[in-house]
UniProtKB/TrEMBL annotation:
<keyword id="KW-0813">Transport</keyword>
<keyword id="KW-0812">Transmembrane</keyword>
<feature type="transmembrane region" description="Helical">
    <location>
        <begin position="206"/>
        <end position="225"/>
    </location>
</feature>
<feature type="transmembrane region" description="Helical">
    <location>
        <begin position="286"/>
        <end position="311"/>
    </location>
</feature>
<feature type="transmembrane region" description="Helical">
    <location>
        <begin position="69"/>
        <end position="90"/>
    </location>
</feature>
<keyword id="KW-1133">Transmembrane helix</keyword>
<keyword id="KW-0472">Membrane</keyword>
<comment type="similarity">
    <text>Belongs to the binding-protein-dependent transport system permease family. FecCD subfamily.</text>
</comment>
<feature type="transmembrane region" description="Helical">
    <location>
        <begin position="97"/>
        <end position="119"/>
    </location>
</feature>
<feature type="transmembrane region" description="Helical">
    <location>
        <begin position="157"/>
        <end position="177"/>
    </location>
</feature>
<feature type="transmembrane region" description="Helical">
    <location>
        <begin position="125"/>
        <end position="145"/>
    </location>
</feature>
<dbReference type="InterPro" id="IPR000522">
    <property type="entry name" value="ABC_transptr_permease_BtuC"/>
</dbReference>
<protein>
    <submittedName>
        <fullName>Iron complex transport system permease protein</fullName>
    </submittedName>
</protein>
<keyword id="KW-1003">Cell membrane</keyword>
<dbReference type="Pfam" id="PF01032">
    <property type="entry name" value="FecCD"/>
</dbReference>
<feature type="transmembrane region" description="Helical">
    <location>
        <begin position="245"/>
        <end position="274"/>
    </location>
</feature>
<feature type="transmembrane region" description="Helical">
    <location>
        <begin position="317"/>
        <end position="335"/>
    </location>
</feature>
Length: 346
């Protein structure tokens, strides 16, 4: 892909993301026009002094809908770039950010808070902190199990991730089975399927800066990611320190995934399908794959969240159900395509 075409595609995707976010803010029981949305945004940013929006409309736009849409964009972008990095790390087309046990570990932490009252002294931050600690704990265990003679084995990494995920999922299911709190059980199930309902401006800073940090670090190392797709021997020949780079990927991808899972719950299929869509569009060069994955992932999750709010209105469907409904047929179709294979540019 030429530089001009890449720049044009990035511009189109940024425009599409802004349009999607505007439309998503409009969706709801209170009718909001695009003009009011941008007036409120610019007034909050200090660009405009006056706005025709009423106080109620301003609260709905700025305090309720905007944080949720921004969080959807952050989570979608984060899961997409993590999925792309993990697929290069293990050179496996069905790998996703949760393959290291992050989701299962986070679920144990969240269930412990909701059902057992752990970390209750932290109030509204208890679930997020417990979920993050659970995710990091799972990754540490997987990482330790994957090391053989001081080196990381990709096969052991995959197997350890599967095994730890199963153990932690069993722990979550045991807590659910033993609990007598019907409301708590529903809350845990809702969290495990993903939700952006708790989005607030106060809890967006950590996911945003984590995404920015990991995105920059991955983009700076796009050549090493490209080399991994060529195989271990080729990557080593090209000067990639495989063990050090694997630790780097595991550390930062797990950190970012743990952060977003802590605030949004487990949202599946985003990190699995978005990198494949991008590779079919622009090939396997990670200098192109990472930024485009971030933008398409953000757009996808904004629309998925919109659907989650609309389908059962005034009730809300867990966003993980929407992503699974969209992701499963696409993944099956992609696998059936004769021309597509993991790691090529077709």
């Amino acid at each position: 892909m030429t530089k001009t075409r890449f720049t044009l595609l990035i511009g189109v995707l940024i425009g599409g993301l802004l349009a999607s976010m505007t439309f998503a803010v409009m969706v709801g029981s209170v009718e909001i026009t695009p003009r009011l949305i941008w007036e409120v945004l610019f007034s909050k940013l200090g660009i405009l002094i006056e706005t025709d929006a009423s106080k109620a409309q301003t609260i709905i736009i700025w305090d309720i809908r905007f944080p949720r849409i921004v969080l959807a964009s952050i989570v979608g972008a984060a899961l997409s770039i993590c999925g792309a990095a993990i697929q290069a790390l293990v050179k496996n087309s069905i790998a996703d950010p949760y393959i290291l046990g992050v989701s299962s570990g986070a679920s144990v932490g969240a269930a412990s808070v909701i059902l057992l009252g752990a970390f209750s002294v932290l109030g509204v931050y208890a679930i997020s902190l417990a979920a993050f600690l659970g995710a990091i704990f799972a990754v540490v265990i997987v990482f330790l199990l994957a090391r053989v003679n001081g080196r990381i084995s990709v096969i052991r990494l995959l197997l350890a991730g599967i095994a730890i995920s199963m153990v932690l999922s069993a722990m979550t299911n045991f807590m659910l089975m033993m609990s007598k709190q019907q409301g708590g059980i529903q809350a845990v199930m809702h969290w495990m399927l993903g939700s952006l309902a708790g989005a607030k401006w106060s809890n967006l800073a950590v996911p945003f800066f984590s995404l920015l940090l990991v995105f920059i670090l991955l983009l700076m190392n796009y050549r090493q990611l490209n080399a991994l797709l060529l195989g271990e021997e080729t990557a080593a020949t090209l000067g990639v320190d495989l063990d050090r780079f694997r630790i780097f990927i595991i550390l930062f991808v797990s950190l970012l995934t743990g952060v977003v899972v802590a605030v949004s719950g487990s949202i599946g299929f985003v990190g699995l399908i978005i990198p494949h869509i991008v590779r079919m569009m622009v090939g396997s060069n990670y200098k192109l794959v990472l930024p485009i994955s971030a933008l398409i992932g953000a757009i996808f999750l904004v629309w998925a969240d919109m659907a989650a709010r609309i389908v059962l209105a005034p009730e809300e469907m867990p966003i993980g159900i929407i992503t699974a409904i969209c992701g499963s047929p696409f993944f099956i179709w992609m696998l059936r395509r004769k021309r597509y294979s993991f790691g090529d540019g077709e």
